[in-house]
Amino acid sequence: MIEFHLDPRTGVAPYLQLVQQVRQALLLGLLSEGDQLPTVKQVVTKIAINPNTVLKAYRDLEREGLVAPKPGVGTFVTKTLGQASLVEHEPLRRELAAWLGRARAAGLTEPGIEAMFQSTLRESGEEEK
Question: For residues 19 and 42, what is the distance between their CA atoms, to the nearest angstrom?
Fold first, then answer.
């Protein structure tokens, strides 16, 4: 089951952070069709968030067709986004973790790492066109 977290430094609305985390888990194969998301009560207890914020995130995911509520039972994944499981990408994840270690050792902060990653991602996408 996914465990949500919030980062107030991002400037991203809390409900969008929850939506993004579910989408990422689906892309990475951490969530699969039929998996249950934490109940609103579980999320509220774990990360001290307003229940309406969690409900808004779950409604957005429902509108996207990614989850569906089952009254009295919970909210369940109805569609995946991943093309391969996280296990298949484990070598890439290890390489990325090693690179992150080198970046931190070189003095880059998390915002600097994110900026470099986003810039490189955009540039590599432009090269493929």
Answer: 16
